[in-house]
Amino acid sequence: MADLKGNALEKAKNIKLLAFDVDGVMTDGSVTYDENGVEYKTFNVKDGQGLVRMGKSGFITAIITARNNGTVKHRAENLNITEVYQGQKYKLPALEEIM
Lowest CB count within 10 Å: 11, 31, 67, 73, which one? Predict the structure, then answer.
């Protein structure tokens, strides 16, 4: 068991990038629209604090989402997330570009 734990710690030292989807990951998965069709999302402040801390610790933080929404851009700016890819139905190419 000690070998597995040590191996995992060694592998974890190589992690430089944290990439997330938005809906259901950074939110509770619900989407709210107003009468004009404007979309709203609710984000968890604890998740945001964690992302800010990870960014300050030297990790690259990224959002890759299929939807296109100004709320996501605003949230990313608030959290100092510089890698934001919206409108990405297929997320792997965006992730590979960031890497």
Answer: 11
pLDDT in tens, 28-65: 888 899 999 988 889 988 889 999 999 999 999 999 99
The residue written with tokens 């965006």 in the block is 94
What is the spatial distance between Cα 17 and Cα 20, in angstroms, rounded to a whole number?
Answer: 10
Q: Token pair of 81, please? A: 């997330």
Reduced 3-state DSSP string for the chain:
CHHHHHHHHHHHCCCCEEEECCCCCCECCCCEECCCCCEECCECHHHHHHHHHHHHCCCEEEEECCCCCHHHHHHHHHCCCCEEECCCCCHHHHHHHHC
Q: Which of 22, 61, 62 is nearest to 42 (CA)?
A: 22
Q: Tokens 């998965």 label which residue? A: 29
- pTM of the model as a whole: 0.83
* DSSP assigned state of 43: B
How far apart (Å, rounded) are the C-alpha atoms in residues 88 and 69?
A: 12
